[in-house]
Write a structure and sequence with these properties.
Layout: E1 2-3, E2 10-17, E3 20-25, E4 28-31, H1 37-55, E5 59-65, E6 68-74, E7 83-89, E8 92-100, E9 112-117, H2 139-152, E10 164-172, H3 180-192, E11 203-210, E12 213-216, H4 220-224, E13 228-235, E14 239-250, H5 252-280, H6 295-313, H7 320-341, H8 347-369, E15 384-388, E16 396-402, E17 405-414, E18 420-421, H9 424-430, E19 434-435, E20 437-442, H10 459-472, E21 483-492, H11 497-511, E22 521-531, E23 539-546, H12 550-555, E24 558-564, E25 569-576, E26 581-582, H13 583-607, E27 621-626, H14 629-636, H15 641-650, E28 653-656, E29 661-666, H16 669-683, E30 696-704, E31 708-712, E32 720-723, E33 745-753, E34 760-763, E35 773-777, E36 782-786
Parallel strand pairs: 9-10, 20-21, 30-35
Antiparallel strand pairs: 1-2, 2-3, 3-4, 5-6, 6-7, 7-8, 8-10, 11-12, 11-13, 13-14, 14-25, 14-26, 15-16, 16-17, 17-21, 18-19, 22-23, 22-24, 24-25, 27-29, 28-29, 30-31, 30-33, 31-32, 33-34, 35-36
Helix pairs in contact: 2-3, 2-10, 3-5, 6-7, 6-8, 10-11, 15-16
Family: Belongs to the polyribonucleotide nucleotidyltransferase family.
Keywords: Acetylation, Cytoplasm, Exonuclease, Hydrolase, Membrane, Mitochondrion, mRNA processing, Nuclease, Nucleotidyltransferase, Phosphoprotein, RNA-binding, Transferase, Transit peptide, Transport
Subcellular location: Cytoplasm; Mitochondrion intermembrane space; Mitochondrion matrix
Length: about 800
């Protein structure tokens, strides 16, 4: 048997001629790489021309979702990929390709890589970096890639360890329809029309809630006023494969109704993709090997280790470290005996045999005995302790401990200028320009007693931080005068650290005096299920676990994280490890999480029940200063000199609010006091108020510049530029042409302040005409007559 190098279909090798070995597959001749170059070129051309002609017919299906139509097509673009699909709603289009190798890797997990890319050209923009190319990945791209990954990963066959890559390319965006949901449907279609083994298809929709009305795939404008942003990914038979949501205290009944509506609409998309796959007539490839433990070795491992494993998992005196050490010891002993009994066994088969026995033992204890390894019943929380105001110099801090999961959260305030400015592509795609609230999640290796590199944020940290941020964002006041940064550092981890970050972040915000509308708590719900032997897609028995441990997440079928207030839900993320969940289990998980959430909030309220009335004394200060236009030039200084000096010397940040108002952010009250003194000094009232419009004054030249001279009308004033154009009726290039020198006194006429920039307007040129003018000298306090006018000069005040 052999396979064509591009279309990958298997063929029977036929020797038509000794020099031209070829294969026949239907009406298409495939060259195997032998024979003369002439024959080689001839046969290759026939092969690929046939491939192109067979795929050149574009297949297209459409789905009506509310007022918009979703179109899915294949057969036109990227035909060398194993599967390719283009999904379009409105004028937003996403192309998704799927390619999987035909030889397995040496990894012991599904090597799936999903990459979502926003192209600047799709939004009609050019990247603003120095190379004008797409560089690196943005947070939005990574979060969307994770969304797609979690949607398609559960449906790959168990033991399919073949390198697989799904690439999502944003072709065009209209600024109305979000492309992330389209990318999920595109990945489903690309895998469905390919020969890659995959138990799909799936369908995805976004649900919004505007004025009590549920919207399917709402536009960006509709989402701006929606209190719910729910992405539902459904599988065949109305099952839930993945969910991710953010909401503004959405009531439980409204949320459950949105989930049901979303799953209902996903079934239309699934039917359309199934029709598309049927029209393409693609048969799934048969993998060389699906990695799984050999039954004989598993049985031997069960005889050796099942009782020992059971004893460890039912001993509630163990903590995470001691339990892992005990299981590790049993593993090493068992694997050594297995290798003696089966010397030819693959290392993976030996290891997986023990894993299978360990996982089955753990799950049977929960399913059959209603017990958990730490001694809790199925719905009990771990012990929770909370502490706030841990470190006095910080603007806000809290320590949240739940079992062996410990999270330290801190709050830092900064000026609104420090808000996150999104890149131009994300702004064009999602409409988000900047945000003044952010939560950053850190997971150092010591949190799990490991050693690792501290080389910046990874995708997992970004995803967990984004979930905790969505949990807290709805309770942050929209008119808060600072940018808020919450940092969540996981000091110990034994499950549900992202929800612990939401709890700790809520406590830290209240400790910092942020007037949040309500406290927020989060919890993770797990699942242990037993499939129906006759129909593996159905669940015969299951148990839901409240506040899961790390080992329960690892050996379980679901990690269902939900956060919210006493009133409703603010965020949810469901990671499912089996092909799908019935709606009944989803509804039960939401109810169980709601009960646990309220219990956690009761414990948190004992540490701090509401936000502090006042921020800490060493906290930042924001004040507004009104600067009249007449003084703005002096306040800003030449070329912004005074502002830069003020910010450098005091550490404050100044931003202009409107024509006469400036906002000053100071990191400490003492810095604000210094800034106020500085501003008072440079903007203090002076003799300028005595100047009269149209009067003539004697000015002293303090500096000669190329563009004019700097003059003072009185000793204490700031020097003012008298431009060359106002020195004389003649056009001059330099003041020296008129013989002007530093220290020389000249007469100028005062025309008030420029209404646009507040600069003082002076002119010497107008005095060169024979018009009679009044001269005023502030220093001498007397008046003289000038020119041919008979008018009497008034005394200088």
């Amino acid at each position: 048997m052999a396979a064509c190098r591009r279309c990958r279909t298997e063929m029977v090798r036929l020797f038509i001629h000794p020099k031209f070995p070829i294969s026949l597959n239907g009406n298409v001749m495939h060259f195997l790489g032998l024979g003369s170059k002439a024959a080689q070129g001839h046969v290759v051309r026939r092969c690929h021309q046939s491939v192109w002609s067979s795929h050149s017919t574009v297949k297209k299906v459409g789905v009506d979702l509310g007022e918009r139509k979703l179109e899915i097509s294949t057969g036109k673009l990227a035909r060398f990929a194993d599967g390719s699909a283009v999904v379009q709603v409105g004028d937003t289009s996403v192309m998704v390709t799927a390619v999987s190798k035909t030889k397995p890797t040496s990894s012991q997990f599904m090597p799936l890589v999903v990459d979502y890319r926003q192209k600047a050209a799709a939004a009609g923009r050019i990247p603003t970096n120095y190379l004008r190319r797409e560089l690196g990945t943005t947070d939005n791209e990574i979060l969307t890639s994770r969304l797609i990954d979690r949607s398609i990963r559960p449906l790959f066959p168990a033991g399919y360890f073949y390198d697989t890559q799904v690439l999502c390319n944003l072709l065009a965006v209209d600024g109305v329809n979000d492309p992330d949901v389209l990318a999920i449907n595109g990945a489903s279609a690309a895998l469905a029309v390919s020969d890659i083994p995959w138990n799909g298809p799936i369908g995805a929709v976004r649900m919004g809630l505007v004025d009590g009305e549920f919207l399917v795939n709402p536009t960006r404008k509709e989402m701006s006023s929606s209190t719910l942003n729910l992405v539902v990914v459904g599988g065949p038979h109305s099952q839930v494969v993945m969910m991710e949501a953010a909401g503004e205290n959405v009531l439980q009944q409204d949320f459950c109704h949105a989930v049901k509506l979303g799953v209902k609409h996903t079934q239309q998309i699934i039917l359309a993709i199934q029709q598309l796959a049927k029209e393409c007539s693609v048969s799934k490839r048969t993998p060389q090997k699906l990695f799984a433990a050999v039954a004989e070795i598993v049985e031997y491992a069960r005889q050796l280790a099942s009782e020992k494993i059971y004893a460890v998992y039912t001993d509630s005196s163990h903590d995470k470290i001691s339990r892992d050490e005990a299981i590790k010891k049993i593993r090493l002993e068992t694997e050594e005996l297995i290798r003696e009994r089966f010397p030819d066994a693959d290392p993976y088969e030996v290891m997986e045999s023990f894993n299978t026995v360990s996982k089955q033992t753990f799950r049977n204890i929960t399913l059959n005995e209603y017990r958990r390894c730490d001694g809790r019943d199925l719905t009990s929380l771990r012990n929770i302790s909370c502490e706030v105001d841990i470190f006095k110099p910080l603007h806000g801090s809290a320590l949240f401990q739940r079992g062996q999961t410990q999270v330290l959260c801190t709050v830092t305030f900064d000026s609104l200028e420090s808000s996150i400015k999104t890149d131009i592509i994300t702004t064009a795609v999602s409409g988000v320009k900047d945000k003044n609230f952010m939560l950053h999640y850190e997971f150092p290796p010591y949190a799990t007693n490991e050693i690792g590199k501290m080389n910046g944020m990874n995708r997992r940290e970004l995803g967990h931080g984004a979930l905790a941020e969505k949990s807290l964002k709805p309770v942050i006041p929209k008119d808060f005068p600072f940018t808020i940064r919450v940092t969540s550092e996981v000091l110990e981890s034994n499950g549900s650290s992202s929800m612990a970050s939401a709890c700790g972040g809520s406590l830290a915000l209240m400790d910092a005096g942020v007037p949040i509308s309500s406290a927020v708590a989060g919890v993770a719900i797990g699942l242990i299920s037993k499939p129906n032997p006759e129909n593996p897609s159905e669940i015969q028995d299951y148990k839901l676990l409240t506040d899961i441990l790390g080992i329960e997440d690892y050996n379980g079928d679901m990690d269902f994280k939900m956060a919210g207030t006493n009133k409703g839900i603010t965020a949810l993320q469901a990671d499912v490890k089996i092909p799908g969940l019935p709606l009944k289990i989803v509804m039960e998980a939401i109810q169980q999480a709601t009960v646990a959430k309220k219990e956690i909030l009761g414990i948190m309220n004992k540490a701090i029940a509401k936000p502090r009335l006042n921020r800490k004394e060493n906290g930042p200060v924001v004040e507004t200063v009104r600067v009249p236009i007449s003084k703005r030039a002096r306040f800003v200084g030449p070329g912004g000199y005074n502002l830069r000096k003020l910010q450098a010397e005091t550490g404050v940040t100044i931003s202009q609010v409107d024509e006469e108002t400036f906002s000053i952010f100071a990191p400490t009250p003492s810095a604000m006091y210094e800034a106020q003194e500085f501003i008072s000094e440079i903007c203090k009232d002076d003799q300028e108020q005595q100047l009269e419009f149209g009067a003539v004054y004697t000015a002293t030249i303090t500096e000669i510049r190329d563009i004019g001279v700097m003059v003072k009308l009185y000793p204490n004033m700031s020097a003012v530029l008298l431009h060359n154009s106002q020195l004389d009726h003649k056009r001059i290039k330099h003041p020296s042409a008129l013989g002007l020198e530093v220290g020389q006194q000249i007469q100028v006429k005062y025309f008030g302040r420029d209404p646009t920039d507040g600069r003082m307007r002076l002119s010497r040129k107008v005095l060169q005409s024979p018009t009679a003018t009044v001269v005023k000298t502030l220093s001498d306090k007397f008046s003289i007559a000038v020119g041919t006018s008979n008018s009497q000069a008034s005394n200088a005040s």
